[in-house]
Write a structure and sequence with these properties.
Helices cover about 45% and strands about 20% of the residues. The longest helix is centred in the first third of the chain and has 30 residues. Helix 1 runs antiparallel to helix 2 and helix 1 packs across helix 4. It starts with a helix and ends with a strand. The chain has one domain. The protein has a 4-stranded antiparallel sheet, with helices on both faces. Strand 1 and strand 2 form a beta hairpin. It contains 6 helices and 6 strands, in the order H-E-E-H-H-H-E-H-E-E-H-E. The chain is α+β, with helices and mostly antiparallel strands. The N terminus is likely disordered.
């Protein structure tokens, strides 16, 4: 990984981690406001859903900005960056690849939440649903893209609050890249259509 990509990846991960760290701390199964050092603060609690929604908001903003950057650079180069392996492509990683890199970076910091892209018909086999909850959530947001899917699940003996949000083709380059990909099940995707879902998990046990 070259120095430019390391900086991009860490910048995205740092934005998410710092934004959430300034608002939440996680203990005892729910996200709570970080205690102030210099003065008392009103007693408040944040539900796991609040934390999941906040993670989604930051990730969605990062993805939109990055997708627009990729679209602009692709237009300038007159080449769609659709080669599956961005390191072989010798260019910027796709927005979905960038999300995976950022997510791994956040997890290495020991975060008690996680996020990942999933799809019922993914271009990358790694993005297939891995649990019944992920599959149910993806089916739900495909039919109801304006509504988020929330539930609890147990993985490895540990309980999680799990949220699934519709992931859309936010810019024309997203739809164009999916339509041009050799593994695509469709050739007529348009901007704004649902490509899959963002799965966010918040630990309920520590």
């Amino acid at each position: 990984m070259d120095l430019t990509m390391k900086r991009l990846m860490m910048a995205g991960a740092a934005t998410l981690a710092l934004t959430l760290a300034g608002v939440f701390w996680v203990r005892g199964g729910e996200a709570k406001p970080a205690p102030a050092k210099s003065r008392a603060v009103p007693q408040m609690t944040f539900k796991p859903r609040d934390l999941a929604d906040s993670v989604r908001a930051v990730v969605a903003a990062n993805r939109l900005v990055y997708a627009r950057l990729v679209q602009r650079l692709s237009a300038e180069e007159k080449v769609l960056p659709c080669v599956p392996d961005w390191q072989q492509r010798k260019g910027l990683p796709l927005p979905s690849e960038m999300l995976r890199l950022e997510s791994h970076a956040v997890q290495r910091e020991g975060a008690e939440f996680s996020y990942v892209l999933r799809a019922l018909q993914p271009l990358d086999p790694r993005n297939r649903p891995e649990t019944p909850v992920e599959k149910a959530g993806l089916e739900f947001v495909l039919k109801h893209p304006e509504t988020s899917f929330y539930t609890n699940e147990t993985l490895g003996g540990r309980r999680y609050f799990t949220a699934v949000y519709a992931d859309r083709a936010t810019v024309p380059a997203c739809a164009d890249c999916h339509n041009a990909h050799p593994a695509t099940p469709r050739k007529d995707l348009r901007t704004g259509e649902v490509l899959g879902g963002l799965v966010v998990r918040v630990a309920l046990e520590f």
